[in-house]
Specification:
The protein is built from 9 helices and no strands. By secondary structure, it is mostly helical. The radius of gyration is 17 Å and the shape is globular. The protein has one domain: Rna Polymerase Sigma Factor, Chain: A, CATH 1.10.1740.
């Protein structure tokens, strides 16, 4: 899969919009889930996902293969989210790409359905650095090493943040009433 992703990215670098659409199909659900957990707003997460794919289109030639394509994509998504959260205007939309069906997929529907759950609320209350790690590892499903690469921190720090996040979630959820 990683070789296929790198090959797709090489095609994107050469201007193949079909390759970008295939990369989007492969990663949009996971990227959207991560972004939704990061920003907490479906519309903003969708906009950031589009900003991310535009950034991929523009910078695909700069991919050096030092990390997995998925790590590279999540790092771009994270950067785009922080640009948006800091109030910087995103780049103008890119219209030349044939986009796949924008209807939400199963992952997006599950994440949206959990949006009002006690767990989602507790995750939303975590500090940003813990919420980032939880979103990358549990929502996006990245391995610890890839999450560390996206965040630019050691794997041990990812493990520590996950440990503290789990403990905070357990404390928060233990104090909530269970519906009868």
């Amino acid at each position: 899969m990683m070789d296929d992703d790198a090959a797709l990215l090489a095609l994107v670098a050469r201007g193949d919009s079909g390759a970008l659409a295939r990369l989007y199909q492969a990663y949009a659900g996971r990227l959207f889930g991560y972004l939704l957990r990061l920003v907490g707003d479906r519309m903003v997460a969708e906009e950031i996902l589009q900003d991310t794919m535009l950034a991929v289109w523009r910078s695909a030639g700069g991919y050096a293969g030092a990390s997995a394509v998925s790590t590279w994509l999540f790092a771009i998504a994270r950067r785009q989210a922080y640009y948006r959260l800091r109030g910087q205007a995103p780049p103008p939309p890119f219209e030349a790409v044939d986009r796949p069906d924008p209807a939400p997929g199963p992952e997006e529907l599950a994440i949206a359905a959990a949006g009002g759950s006690p767990v989602a609320g507790a995750v939303g209350d975590l500090p940003d650095h813990q919420r980032d790690v939880v979103a990358l590892v549990f929502v996006a499903g990245l391995p610890l090493a890839e999450a560390a690469a996206v965040l630019g921190i050691p794997v041990g720090t990812v493990k520590s943040r996950l440990h503290h996040a789990r403990a905070a979630l357990a404390r928060t959820l233990a104090t909530q009433e269970v519906p009868k």
